[in-house]
Amino acid sequence: MPTLADTGSFLSSDDQAHPAASAAAASFAGLLAKLDYLSAGDIESIRRAYRFADEAHLGQLRKNGDPYITHPIAVAAQCAEWKLDAQALMSALMHDAIEDCGVTKEELVERFGAPVADLVDGLTKLEKLEFDTREQNQAESFRKMLLAMAKDVRVILIKLADRTHNMRTMGDMPRSKWQRISSETLEIYAPIAHRLGLNFTYRELQDLAFRFLHPWRYEVLSKALNKSRNRRRDLISRVQKEVEAVFAHQGMSVRIMGREKTLYSVYRKMDNKHLSFSQVTDVYGFRIVVPELTDCYTGLGVLHQLYKPLPGKFRDYVAIPKVNGYQSLHTTLIGPFGTNIEFQLRTHAMDVVAESGVAAHWLYKASEPGSDMSQRLGTQWLQSLLDIQQETHDAGEFWDHIKIDLFPDAVYVFTPKSKIMALPRGATVMDFAYAIHSDVGNHTVSARINGEQRPLRTELANGDVVEIFTAESAEPNPAWLSFVKTGRARSKIRHHLKTVAQEKSHELGERMLSQALRSEGLAALPAEDGEYQSTWEKLLRFTGNKTRDELLSDIGMGKRIASMVGKKLAVLLSEMGLKPDALLISTERYASGRDESASQGVVTLDGSEGLSVQYAPCCKPIPGDRIVGYLGRGEGLVVHAEDCPTGKRLLLRDSERFLEVEWADEPVRSFETTVVVTVTNGKGVLARVASSIASAEADITHVDMGDEPAQTATDIRFSVSVRDRQHLADVLRSLKRTTSVIKAQRFKPVKA
């Protein structure tokens, strides 16, 4: 005998014997009623998916004792309300099959096709065993889900439906889990829903998370809001009648609805702005849905004739939609008894998009087959997920970038050609540059905002016209990371810096290994391929590196000691018949008077080394100073002055990590050092000192005058950029000849 699952009408005797099966079948009947927009073939496919899921979850119960299948049914029902296609509904029914039931992706491909299997796989968390910590596993699982979502937005719609049902039934879960799940919902899923324009889901997730995160606060606010609702019923009724009457007089057919703040939005406003409950709830809201786009503006004029508008409280999101596709006219008016009333005016189409966002694409499909709303709703952000993924291989870092992009507010700025661009509030010139193209961002040197030259860290405001200037030689600056706001800009900068650092450390590592090999009597590094390929393979097994490039980078970054690797390589090469040159050994190892243990070869520095070589900020060495090189663990080569106390301490503790360095005959850039100038305090003294430094052709990069009150004599600390010690001596002589200067000397770190 057929069951309700097959006919939607009656149960078999077997089903009646099993309450769990009965409950599941009844649930499916409820889902069936929502599938009237699908074809008979699609419904049959969904029924097959239901049977498969029901069988897979057989015997599993939810925390409240219901059969587990009731959860996939509820998720599918939510997706059906968004009018998602059959593939999405099938995936919703089977979304836990891989994770909880041991079903494989291959099995799903075979039975339901690759698209459904990919959707289910995108919704499946990763195995916990793969990771050391729960946080790491969670970050990697989110990355997997978000990348699946970037390729197919249905993944996140099903996930949001899943999370919504889980939050609705959270009361059945142990209280120990409330905090974690609610925080995750509030920080991750609610912002994603907002970013994709799913306003109804966004508000519901916020309220549910608030309810379980702060149960007492939720209860108190809920009671207060109900009381407030009763008190203002008369006012709302009066405003509604007056608005309906004035629109009827104009012959306009409109739909008017009261709009109430959610509990969480009330709480957040009270918390953030330190307001009382009455101050938050004294603003009343109405939504007016009109037939046509032009009626929005006509209706605005009608309202402004009825009540006086509040200056500065009008927003036109119709002409310039929000990032998530939201469109409406917003205005705040002064109503009866001096109360503030917010009105939103929008068409029916805008109303659907405002509530359903990306899901509106499927809601419209039936009536407008040609519409492709998903192409403009959220796609920019979805594309940016893929861009960020290409630059970021660490899951935690990837998730950090994404969280930055989940901004609820946006600013709208223009290119010189009047193209409008939406960026998160607080975004800077550099965020704008990277939003145009990563090459533009990487080569940015300056910018104009509204025709005026402005710094790159300038925050952008609505309506700014931004013009970017680039140069081929320009490169990203690590300091940009301190002020960029978008995940895209941050990931592009980090990726570039990492790439450059790797290249530079590779170059340094190659030089250091060559020097170390010369100390062993071998003139040059052997080739990677050909007869020495097996030698490199043995060396890589010895060091634990995957490739030759990785080994050289590790040497440059200080993770491997060049002399040790050089000795091992020399042994391996001698086994191949390559004998050391005794003359070269004596030249390299003993000519400079160094002993064998300290020998790693001399590294010559000219300032072009980039991120692989750092000049210690404690002593700030400049050409002409006697210097030593410390091969830090992971930070590359750090150069100290020979008499630097910090360098001396490191030498006592870590002598094997020191190598000999020397200045090149002609350094290619200037170097920064600190000069302390003691002056007699008086009018114009700073200008005279600065002029004196400039006359010696040195650049001032920083000035520090300290916080102490003005005295007869005071110390001024200048960071100056000089070519070498000779140039510094010229600067100091120029300073000593200046009026009001008592003493001028180079700053040296004190002994610890």
Account of the 3D structure:
With 752 residues, the chain is of the alpha+beta class. It folds into five domains: 4-219, Hypothetical protein af1432; 232-374, Beta Polymerase, domain 2, CATH 3.30.460.10; 379-482, Ubiquitin-like (UB roll), CATH 3.10.20; 495-663, no CATH class; 671-746, Alpha-Beta Plaits (2-Layer Sandwich). Helix content is 50%, strand content 15%. It contains 32 helices and 21 strands. The strands form six sheets. Strands 1, 2, 3, 4, 5 and 6 form a six-stranded mixed beta sheet that branches. A four-stranded mixed beta sheet has the order 13-15-14-16. Strands 19-20-18-21 form a four-stranded antiparallel beta sheet, with helices on one face. β5 and β6 form a beta hairpin. The model is unreliable at 1-26, 126-131, 364-378 and 591-600 (pLDDT under 50).
Query: What's the name of the CATH homologous superfamily of the largest domain?
Result: Hypothetical protein af1432
Low-confidence stretches: 1-26, 126-131, 364-378, 591-600
Percent of residues in beta strands?
Answer: 5-15%
Quick check: average pLDDT?
Answer: 78
| CATH level 3 topology of the largest domain | Hypothetical protein af1432
Largest sheet: 6 strands, mixed
Structural Rg: 35 Å
Gap between N and C termini: 90 Å
CATH hierarchy, class of the largest domain? Mainly Alpha
Structural category is alpha+beta
CATH architecture of the largest domain: Orthogonal Bundle
Number of domains: 5
Q: What share of residues is helical?
A: 40-55%
